[in-house]
């Protein structure tokens, strides 16, 4: 699916600012870019249009020889994180160009993608908001149990996708329709109204909507 251009950043945390009327606005502070363009793809040579961007400088010992050669084409150094953004039209960006927060402005609507906070192994009541068993007579020590999960002889198995206990969180989540409150190019910072997926210092991708 083709997307609009975006930028990589790190979620620093949440705070609040006051607008012109004195109302408190909760915002997420994101340190974004500068992100060098490490590869440009187009439909003629690659079959689709895309731009690959990088973030966070890396030491040479942490980057394989193949990736060192890949980064050398852009001439911007070595990096830890790469993301490819598919575009609907031929990319306007050039190899080695640096993308900064100046591509956004206050009032822009964006979507932010990140890894949600991992909650570990959780039971079905917390993971799926199940009500549990009744807490009255005849119900002993099974209040939070799964209960029946399958059929009898036929088909004799548990159907895939049944809501059960398991790993919760640590999934790729995209929050849509967020509004940029302020852009501070001198600090490479974007202030986004509302919450953003992921923990503090989590990697996020901000894209125009």
Characterization of this structure:
The chain is mainly beta. The chain has three domains: 18-31 and 104-118 and 169-209, Translation factors (Elongation Factor Tu (Ef-tu), domain 3), CATH 2.40.30.10; 34-99, Double Stranded RNA Binding Domain (2-Layer Sandwich); 123-165, no CATH class. 8% of the residues lie in helices and 41% in strands. The strands form three sheets. Strands 1-2-11-10-7-12 form a six-stranded antiparallel beta barrel. A four-stranded antiparallel sheet has the order 5-4-3-6. β1 (6-18) and β2 (24-32) form a beta hairpin. The longest helix is centred in the first third of the chain and has 8 residues, at 65-72. The relative contact order is 0.27. The model has no long low-confidence stretch (mean pLDDT 93). Belongs to the universal ribosomal protein uL3 family.
Brief account:
The protein has helices spanning 43-46, 65-72, 124-128, and strands at 6-18, 24-32, 35-41, 49-57, 79-87, 98-99, 109-115, 120-122, 166-168, 172-184, 189-193, 203-208. The protein is mainly beta and 209 residues long. A hairpin with a 5-residue loop joins strand 1 and strand 2 (24-32).
């Amino acid at each position: 699916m083709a997307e609009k251009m975006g930028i990589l950043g790190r979620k620093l945390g949440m705070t609040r600012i006051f607008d012109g009327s004195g109302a408190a606005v909760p915002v997420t502070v994101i340190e974004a870019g500068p992100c060098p363009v490490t590869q440009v793809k187009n439909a003629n040579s690659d079959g689709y249009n895309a731009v690959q961007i990088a973030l966070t400088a890396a030491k040479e010992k942490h980057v394989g020889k193949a990736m060192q050669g890949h980064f050398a084409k852009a001439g911007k150094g070595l990096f830890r994180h790469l993301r490819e953004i598919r575009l609907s039209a031929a990319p306007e960006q050039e190899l080695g160009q640096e993308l900064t927060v100046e591509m956004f402005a206050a009032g822009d609507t964006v979507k932010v993608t990140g890894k949600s906070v991992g909650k570990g192994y959780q039971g079905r009541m917390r993971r799926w908001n199940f009500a549990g068993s009744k807490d009255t007579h005849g119900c002993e020590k099974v209040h939070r149990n799964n209960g029946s999960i399958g059929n009898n002889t036929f088909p004799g198995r548990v159907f895939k996708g049944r809501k059960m206990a398991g790993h919760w969180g640590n999934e790729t989540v995209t929050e849509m329709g967020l509004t940029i409150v302020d852009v501070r190019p001198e600090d490479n910072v974007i202030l986004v109204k509302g919450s953003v997926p992921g923990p503090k210092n989590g990697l996020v991708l901000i894209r125009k909507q």
